[in-house]
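Appendix B, Record 12. Input sequence as logged:
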Amino acid sequence: MTRLAKLIALTLSLTTGAVSSVYAAQKVQDNEKAINQIQTSVEQQQFDDSTLEKFTVAMYAVQDVAKEFEVKLQQEQSTEKQQQLQASAREAMVDEIKQAGLEVKTYTTIAQLVRQDEALRQRVMNIVNDQDNS
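Logged structural output:
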């Protein structure tokens, strides 16, 4: 696996869980329905290159937030402060996703699709390569 593929896999594994929990927290009562809708959309959703470019921007930004807060969490002993830091991290991740021009649901759906769909994963990797080379 190339360094880029590892980066994407690591970033998606770190951020999907955090962002999914934000999404789920926003939709607690509709959680099961939302998951079913996401699973259905996984099979039906097509994303243009512009949306995938926004996803890659958000992916890197969310990864940076995760790294920043991971260090802070490791240094904190208080459970209460750790929970506050986790909440702050989730808010910061959501902000980064929105600043990239995506809804949290769209980001989460793409992240899930990239894990399951080799063709989409390759498209995202190509976009990342293009961004790195420019």
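The CA atoms of residues 43 and 113 lie 8 Å apart.
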